[in-house]
Amino acid sequence: MKKANIIVDPSKCRICLQCQIFCSLLHEGEANPSKANLTIEKGAITFLETCRENCSFCADYCAYQALKPK
Length: 70
Ligand code: SF4
Ligand code: SF4
Known about the structure:
Elements: E1 6-8, H1 18-28, E2 38-41, E3 44-47, H2 57-60, E4 67-69
Antiparallel strand pairs: 1-4, 2-3
Bound molecules: iron/sulfur cluster (2 copies).
One iron/sulfur cluster binds next to α1.
């Protein structure tokens, strides 16, 4: 699993998918959760190998503090 520079607390995740939407919009030019560099499942948030260095954009858009920049 890729280690992002983000503090993760899956227990706070509401599966709103805003993190995936903004990640894919910024990095892939398309608001498409399936193209995001992280996966969201109940009880698990996983950063993929394609996750960018020095990025915490998704954490900026998590309204529930499940993702927070370090
Ligand atoms: S850290 Fe950046 S590249 Fe990685 S999942 Fe978040 S927005 Fe996407
Ligand atoms: S933005 Fe936060 S609450 Fe919403 S799916 Fe992503 S990690 Fe979960």
